[in-house]
Amino acid sequence: MTIKGLIASITQQEDLNFLLTNRIPRAAVTRFMGWFSKIENPVVRDASIGCWRLFSDLDLTEAKRGEFKSLHDCFTRELKDGLRPYDPDPQVVASPSDAIIGAHGRIEDTELFQIKGANYSLKDLLGDDKLVDAHRNGRFVTLRLTSSMYHRFHAPADFKIERVTFISGDTWNVNPIALKRVERLFCKNERAVIETRLTSGEALTLVPVAAILVASLRLHCIDRTLNAQVSGPSVFPCDVSVHKGDELGWFEHGSTIIVLTPDRFELCPDVREGARIKAGQPLLRKPQ
Fold it and tell me: How far apart, in whole angstroms, are the C-alpha atoms of residue 106 and residue 136?
């Protein structure tokens, strides 16, 4: 068995995986990672990226640049132009990021789930009654970004960003093992609620959720980097129009984006739990 295979075998043991990725000082480790990843020393950079390759399926062949200043620079890499074309159909809400599709489906009144049988509420996730009403009985898709994936995310449709609310919180791992063990995990973790209005008038909300080792979240629309140093909830009024495919920002490690739409939207046929999706591919559709 290869070293990578042995590591994979160990980390797939649920008790050990949960212990290694959660029963540690999560906030302190996350702050350390934020500092360490920005060290621009060639030895540190090369050793860090080499270790990262050992623990994951990291593939840098799509990266725009072949050299990186630091581990952070590699995490937040851009892709070569044209690699993520966005579905041009105006009725389609595309995936904002590369991801593995997690829980998805209809929001039952105001309840959705992180795994089957583990519900949480829109109010706990969003913290705003008006926004909860906008997505009552709507649709949701949970997108999980692994550590090796492309970490930038983009506008899934043409819309206007109206407000960003940053909610401070914990940094639990967001992998399936943790989702089975930590109730209402997404409502406990640090997150941003990005409120948008489609050109057709409907509300579409994106909720990037931080996780352990996610030192910060960069959002271009407010020209801010959001992290544990920002107390929350903090509200940032916004009036920025973007086109489908425009870059919205990036995570500084793998994490999750929850996409929320009103009830008139439908899930696209290829959306199924465990499937990999790339930024720009169809996610939800509004019937004509």
Answer: 9
- 98: annotated active-site residue: yes
Single out the catalytic residue among 98, 135, 147, 151.
98
Per-position b or e across 88-100, b if 16+ CB within 10 A of its CB: eeeebbbbbbbbb
Give the Å distances, CA to CA, from 179 to 14, 116, 119. 11, 10, 11
Find all residues with CB under 8 Å of 12, minimum gap 6, and list them.
none
Separation between Cα atoms, residue 23 and residue 123, nearest integer Å: 28
Instruction: List own/partner pairs for 59-64 with CB under 8 A and 24 or more apart.
Output: 59/148, 62/150
Residue 125 tokens read as: 């996730």
Average pLDDT per consecutive 10 residues, the chain (288 residues; last block may be shorter): 49 49 60 80 91 85 94 92 96 97 96 88 95 97 93 97 92 77 87 95 95 77 81 86 97 86 94 96 94
User: Could you tell me which CATH number the domain at 92-285 has?
Assistant: 2.70.70
Cβ contacts of residue 273 below 8 Å, gap of 6+? 101, 102, 103, 104
126: alpha, beta or left? (left if phi > 0; alpha if psi -120 to 50): alpha
CATH 2.70.70, the chain: domain bounds: 92-285
Mode of pairing for the β-strands spanning 282-285 and 266-267: antiparallel
Predicted pLDDT at 53: 85
**What does the pLDDT read at residue 211?**
78
- What's the rounded Cα separation, in Å, for the pair 192 and 207? 6
Our CA angle for 271, 277, 278, nearest 5°, is: 140
87 is catalytic: no
Catalytic residue chosen out of the listed positions 37, 48, 95, 255 = 255
The residue from 72, 135, 154, 253 that is catalytic is 154
With CA atoms as reference, report the closest residue to 234 among 242, 243, 224, 244: 224
